[in-house]
Amino acid sequence: MKINKLFKALTFAVASFSVASTAVAEDRSYILATASTGGTYYPVGVALATLSKVKLAPKHHFSLSAISSAGSGENVKLLNEDEAQFAILQGLYGAWAWSGEGPYADSGRQDQLRSVSMLWQNVEHFIVRSELAETGTVSDLNNLAGEKFSIGKKNSGTENSGRQIMKGLGVDPESFNLAYMGYGGSASALQNGTIDGMNTPAGVPVGAVTQAFAALGNDISILSFTDEQIKAANGKYNLWTKYEIPANTYPELDKPVTTIAQPNFLAVRKDLSDEDVYQLTKAIYENLSFLQGIHKATKAMAIEKAIAGLPVPLHPGAARYYQEVGIDIPSELVME
Length: 336
Fold this sequence. Notes:
This protein is an alpha/beta fold. Helices cover 39% and strands 18% of the residues.
């Protein structure tokens, strides 16, 4: 009798342990790499992590935890080494990583990389003094030889994206008298006449651009892009898409300006389960108001723009959701 009771007790204990172990195994926690806490990447990452904990953890048993990082360059490394399973990346870094170019020329294609969704766009603002804007398009950058132009802080995404665009346009930035300043510093320098132009890729409206137009008005111009120039700027990447800055976005900007924008996007390792990535993608687009209530950068998100400008093929789980809602997925975003 005692042996029988002991056997039953042991059986119950083993069964309980097995159930607990299964529950633990099913509760999956993924790391989402962002950037410094002072920028936009980190709070957007926190918003996505919060969404996962509220909408996905109770039923689907997985969630994301956002961590700060040095930004896109480090995030590609963290994904490759499985130190993070998700990351927010600037589109250009995704394009470089997937093509094995730029900083990845030696290591080659980062094959673990897949995309989930475009999050928000960095809108290019190439701004010059109006007397240098003969055509009003980015071909006027060729008028800046010998002039002082702020291309962004050294080794920043601003500098790298600016150089990449100008390379496609056949403009040599080394012919400029280059300054390496952040957005606020560039706007102040433009106001006091120490530079003749600047590039500020960011979400519209950009505070530094508002500052510059408030002070200088029609004395400065945002250079526009023609369709041919958009194609040239992209080269082989198909990264930047057409973006119209509406009239009156900035003081005395009385006409819309056609420029280009690249995505900041949510990336993922290719070996994550299709089901988890599907559920996350679905949760994002079925709960946009939830995200938008946490951070304003996500207000630009819409299902119609979910795959715009993505530089890396979609994860099958994300592709499944987009197909369900009727989005046509171009061949370059499909991996067999």
